[in-house]
Every structure is written in C-alpha cells, then in structure tokens.
Amino acid sequence: MEVKQISACPLNCWDTCGFTVTVDSDTVTKVEGNKQHPVTKGHICSRGRMLETRTNSSLRITKPLKKVDGHFEKISWEQALDEIAEKLIVTKEVYGTTAVLHSHDYSNNGLLKNLDYRFFNCYGGVTEVVGSLCWGAGIEAQIWDFGNSAAHAPEDIFNSKHVVVWGRNAASTNIHLFANLIEAKKKGIHVTVIDPLHHQTAKLADTFIAVRPGMDGLLAIGIMKVLKTMNALAEDFIRKHTYGYEEFDKYIDNISMDEIVEQTSVTEKIIHELAYQYSNGPTTTYLGLGLQRYANGGHTIRLIDALVAVSGNIGIRGGGANYGHLPVGQSFDVGNLLLESRKKNSRTFTRMNQAEKILSESEPPIKMAFVSRGNPLTQLPDTNRVEEAFASIETVVVIDQFMTDTAELADYILPCSTVFEEEDIYYASMYHSYVNYGPKLVTPKGEAKSDLWIWRELATRLGFGEDFAFSEEEFLRMGLKSLEAKGITLEKIKEEGFVKLPVPDVPWADFTFKTPSGKYEFTTTLPLLEGEEGALSFQYPLESVISSKCKKFPYHLLSKHPARSNHSQNYHLLDDKRVIVEISEKIGLEKELTDGEEVIIWNERGEVTGHVKIMKKAHDDTINIDEGRWKKLGGSVNVLTSSGRSEIGLGGIQYDCLVDIKKSASALGKM
Ligand SMILES: Nc1nc2c(c(=O)[nH]1)N[C@H]1C(S)=C(S)[C@@H](COP(=O)(O)OP(=O)(O)OC[C@H]3O[C@@H](n4cnc5c(=O)[nH]c(N)nc54)[C@H](O)[C@@H]3O)O[C@H]1N2
Ligand SMILES: Nc1nc2c(c(=O)[nH]1)N[C@H]1C(S)=C(S)[C@@H](COP(=O)(O)OP(=O)(O)OC[C@H]3O[C@@H](n4cnc5c(=O)[nH]c(N)nc54)[C@H](O)[C@@H]3O)O[C@H]1N2
Ligand code: SF4
Ligand SMILES: [Mo]
C-alpha cells in the first residue's frame, strides 16, 4: 500500500529541503518536496528527486567486497569486519594508531554521520584531514571580521533595495535563493550578479558583471574608493563599531583606479553604479564559495565584507554579507558525540594535499586508510597524485553505495545505506536555520548497512563496544542536549518534521561582534599563524594574468558545481557521457573552436579531453569544466587543479588554475 512520509534531503547543499516520500511495499517510489516546509515550500531539485534512483539503482553495491588478485570478490560481513578489525589491531601494535588515515568529506549532512570521529577517537586517535575543499578561506575570513559566519534569514531579502549575488550560482546550487531572486525582481528590487560566467543566475540579473577570476577583492576596493569620494561611508558605524579602519583607509588610497579597471575587467562606470547600490541600501550581498577557492580567497571575502561594513549594511534588516551560517551547526552538541577525550594520539594532514603527505610521511607511514562520506579520487585536487597516493597504501577501506573512482582503488568496500534506509536529522550551516527529520522508511538494499552499524560492529571487535552501545535515538538525543533547554527535542523534530533553531534572523543587530575587540575588525586582533597577514589587503591569485605561468597557460579554468549532480554523486546515473568544456567567445575565436569540437585542456599537472561549448558573455579569459565526473566516465577536472591552499583558513584553491586548450589530435585528423 502506498504511504506518504515526511523526510529530508541529506545532500551537502545550501537548501536542506524538506521531503515528502512515497513508499510502496518497502520501496521508495517517489521523492517530492514537503509543501509545509517554511523555507523550501515543496520545491526541490532533480538531485533531491534522484535520491529515489540512487536508492533503487541496480548499480548499488549490496555486499561487502574484498580485492583479491586485483578483482573484487563478495564476502560476508563477518569476514570483512573480522579482517578489517584484525588489521586495525596489528597496525596499532606495530606502527601506532596514526598509521591509520581517516579521509572523509561531507557528502551527507546527517548528525549521526559525525560518529566516524567517535570511532577513531576511541581507537586511540588517527591521522585526520583538516581544512576544507569547499569554504575554508571564507569562513576564516568572516571569523576574522565578525567573529563568526552568520547569514540573514532567507526572507530578509525582501527588506532589501538592492541584492548583489557575488559568485553564487543560485539557479543551480541554491534554488530557494533563486526563487527569492525571481520574487524580489518582481517587487522591483534590483539584482546584480558578479561572476566570470553568464549562467542561469546571471541571466536573471538586472546588471551582470563579468569579473576576471580571482580579482573580486580589487573590485570591492574600487567600490570603496568611489564611496569615499561620494562621502557615502557609514561614518558613525565605522567610528563606534569597527577596529583598524584608518590603516585600511590609507591602504586603499594607494591602489589606483586604473589598476582596478585593468585587472578586474570592470569599467569605472560600472564601479560607480555598484557604489551607488551599496550607498543607497539596504543592500544585501550573497557571497558564493567559488570566488574564495583561490590562494587569495580569504582576503577576497574580507574585502567584500569590508565593503558591506563601510557602506553601513551590517546588522540591519535587508543588509548582510551572507556567506556561511555557522550558528546552525553550533546549536548542536556535536562534541558530546565525538568523545574527543579518548583520543590519545593525533596527526593532521591538510585535506587538499593529503596525497603529498601520504606519499612522504614516514613517522609513522600511512598503512591503512578509511574513506567515509567522500570520494577523494574525484573530488580532491591534483587527481594523478591522489591516485598514486591511495594506490600506495597497503589497506584501503571505502564505505560507499557505488563503485566510485575511490572504491575501485579499495581493498575492502563496505556497502552503506541511503538516506531513506536509516534514521537521522539533517541540517546545513549555509542558508536557513531549520533542522529536518529523516526517518528510516525502507529496509536497506541487499546487505547494505548504516555507517553507524559499521562503526558499532568494528568497535565491538576492537574492545570498545560499550562506547557504541546506544541506539540511533539515544545518539540523536546526545547531539540535541544543548537544545533541550530551548524546547527543541527529538520528539518535537520527529513530530513536526522540521524545527527552526534559535538563531537570529538578522546577525550582529546589536553591533556587538564576536571578535577579540568586540568590534568589526578591518585588521584582525586574532593570533596569526606563520605567513598570515592580519591587515586587510589585496593579493593576486597564485595563477593569474600577472604570473609568469600565464605566458605558457593563458586561460583561467573554473570547475563549478554540476547542475544535475551533487558533486560526484549522480554522473553514473545520468545519460551524460561527454565532458563539456565551456569556453568564452574570445577563446573560441583565438583558437578557432566551435561548438562540439573535441579539445584537450592541459597544464603541468595533467590533461582532460572534452567537447567545446561556447559560453556567451563570459569573461574573455575563462574556461569551465563542471566538477564531479568520474574517471571512467571521461575523467575529473581535478586532474588539472592545484593542491595548494588559501592564504588563510586552510581552504582549497581549485579555481586558481591556469590552462591552455587545443584541438585534439583525433579532431585534427578528421579535418
Ligand atoms: N547543483 C548543485 N548544487 C550544489 C552542489 C552541487 O554539487 N551541485 N554543491 C553544494 C555545495 S557542497 C556547495 S559548496 C555549494 C556551492 O555553491 P556556489 O558557490 O554557488 O557554487 P560553486 O560552484 O562552488 O561556485 C561557483 C560560482 O563561483 C563563480 N566563480 C568562480 N570564480 C569566481 C571569481 O573569481 N569571482 C566571482 N565573482 N565568481 C567566481 C563561478 O563562475 C560559479 O558561478 O553548492 C551546493 N549546491
Ligand atoms: N575542481 C573542483 N573540485 C571540488 C569542488 C569544485 O568546485 N571544483 N568543490 C569542492 C566541494 S565544495 C566539496 S563540498 C567537495 C565534495 O566532495 P565529496 O563530499 O567527496 O563529494 P560527493 O560526490 O558529494 O560525495 C562523495 C561520496 O560520498 C558517498 N556517500 C553519500 N552518502 C553517504 C553516506 O551516508 N555514507 C557514506 N559513507 N558515503 C556516502 C557518495 O556515494 C559519494 O561517492 O568537493 C570539492 N571538490
Ligand atoms: S540537493 Fe539541495 S535543492 Fe536539491 S533537494 Fe536537496 S537540499 Fe533541496
Ligand atoms: Mo561544498
């Protein structure tokens, strides 16, 4: 019999949608939006709907697999867990616990997914990955500026006069912001999009500005210079509530408008228009994450924050520098779940250059790796190096649902359940402040098990079973402990399906900031790490038009997020077998390339073959290949990207990447 149940999207996404899922005879048959959800309002994207396909797919791994003589063989859970536990015990005895690497990312937003940390802490502490492929530079930037990264409630957009979408492809990545942009435009609110690519979000804008990649900080400086000449600075706010402005004020005087115009490719007229918008607020700014995946990414976000601050758009309705929304995650008692005190040893590798470390560290060497909620072979930069590194590890254990690039390299693959086959609660520290409930709706396919079941079974074999002797509900209650006093309990979340967390709708409304000085800080007073610069300034990206590398590799390569897949999760389920290489009209003319032609894009790290699509109105120097494609489906763009890190915040710099492009030999052969 068909039943409709409330559930939630687990994907790492701005929107964290509420679902209504149809279940028939222990099978999920349809995923729709829950119309009652106050933010997502019944509207979901194809990635959400495809979770039905992901759950029912015949490509699912349904039995534990072990690699024997280069081929996978099906084995029992008993055998898989016994052998893996034995290897963990021996590795600990011979090399110590940090010879085990836990390599993960955040493909599933469930609270219980954090229990992998609890497992490795109880084991004694392993080599962990730190830093972020996603948003690290910008988060650190906002911590320096405000003391935290907090967004305005989604509906606050309607209190704005102007909206600036700065490097966020909302139409594809944040569909409820996009819906609000459409609504805002209807109400006469002016929408500006600043992005090197003229994508769906840009098409909606009243004003589209094709900025050169990595130069947004300079653009923000240009706007601030004009605000100064207009006498349009929020002087009262600056005087009473900020620290370090004078130093910054002198700094921007020394940067010439000519340099700004030349390097950003934005005309002085447009810079004046932007200055008008910021001074004639309230103006809200939605920052994306793409513009900070550069070596200068932290200061890019800091300079845009500074613009929002000096124009008086902080702490007011309709204003804001919306980037991350950390108060959401900070509401939970995640620490309670992790048992950090059980960690006796520890070592950290930076997430983006874990490959280098795996290959070079010898005290102790990495003997064993666990991959959970991540697909490093596709998602980490510099794929060739990552492949070499993971192939060099004696035992690799991958917990996943499908035979990904990473799973192919594993020695053991443990099949895990999907969102509809397990219970959890879901939230994202990105856009809105709701937590959603996801009950277990169907029996896991084949012999798939939840990540938690796997950790529990291994813990029992390793002698710390009592640390995992809790049910899903008991663990969820542990994580919700901090919210109980505010009336938010598991019962309430279950009953209502979603609950708003006690997070302000307008951050910093009392102008008290969480920085050491309590003020908005243009110069940070936080302790600095080696090489960090506390004063606010613009640095060029590592690979830019002014770098010597540009003579050899003249084009900027971006790798934005794919529309129909969350990163690498759907490519194998889509009828989409071609790598699409989007190039600007100017590159098309320079290289005599037309739509559909086969091309090679390369740099010193690797090469990718794909088919041309000319992008209209994109910045002249720009190429884009969407990220997430598996090697066996044409290859990941990360073959070309750098494992470097941002100047602050241990962020990835995948978009700080120069390449060249040519017709492929096979294409030339046909001419
Ligand atoms: N469809 C879909 N949605 C997703 C995801 C997905 O994989 N697919 N992933 C989710 C996740 S984990 C994240 S982190 C978010 C990210 O959400 P977004 O920030 O919207 O997306 P990204 O693809 O990270 O960033 C790409 C945008 O940054 C622009 N950009 C790149 N360089 C620059 C620059 O120098 N200046 C400016 N101004 N813009 C620049 C790109 O052209 C593109 O429009 O999306 C989430 N939503
Ligand atoms: N070049 C380039 N590279 C990028 C980016 C970019 O813009 N450009 N974006 C970066 C960003 S923003 C991010 S967030 C990362 C994302 O990187 P990842 O999180 O590694 O990517 P995903 O493809 O979302 O998920 C990885 C795997 O998790 C599995 N999975 C899903 N649910 C579960 C679960 O419940 N348990 C377990 N064990 N596994 C599960 C999926 O099947 C999938 O194979 O990629 C980064 N890489
Ligand atoms: S992927 Fe994002 S927009 Fe799509 S259904 Fe999930 S939370 Fe909603
Ligand atoms: Mo991300």
Average of pLDDT: 97
What is the helix fraction of residues, given as a range? 25-40%
CATH topology title of the largest domain: Rossmann fold
Q: Biggest sheet, in brief?
A: 8 strands, mixed
* Structure ligands: ligand MGD, iron/sulfur cluster, molybdenum atom
Query: What is the beta-strand fraction?
Result: 15-25%
- What's the multimeric state? single chain
Radius of gyration equals: 25 Å
Strand order of the largest sheet: 5-4-17-16-15-6-7-14
Briefly note the structural class of the backbone: alpha/beta
Q: Could you name the ranges where pLDDT drops below 50 across 5 or more consecutive residues?
A: none
- The total beta strand count reads 27
Shape from CA axes?
globular
Annotation field: number of helices = 26
How many individual domains?
A: 3
From the N-terminal CA to the C-terminal CA, the straight-line distance is 60 Å
Assigned CATH class of the largest domain: Alpha Beta
* CATH architectural type of the largest domain: 3-Layer(aba) Sandwich
Give an overview of the whole structure.
The protein has 671 residues and is α/β, with parallel strands linked by helices. The protein has three domains: 65-133 and 337-428 and 438-486, Rossmann fold (3-Layer(aba) Sandwich), CATH 3.40.50; 136-323 and 508-517, Dimethylsulfoxide Reductase, domain 2 (3-Layer(aba) Sandwich), CATH 3.40.228; 548-669, Beta Barrel (Barwin-like endoglucanases). The protein is 32% helix and 19% strand. The chain contains 26 helices and 27 strands. The strands form six sheets. It has an eight-stranded mixed β-sheet, covered by helices on one side. It has a six-stranded mixed barrel with strand order 22-26-23-25-24-27. Helix 3 crosses helix 21, helix 9 packs across helix 13 (268-279) and helix 9 (216-229) packs parallel to helix 14. The radius of gyration is 25 Å and the shape is globular. One ligand MGD is lined by residues 12-14, 47, 134, 166-169, 172-173, 194-197, 199, 211, 213-214, 216, 288-291, 558, 560-563, 566-567, 655.
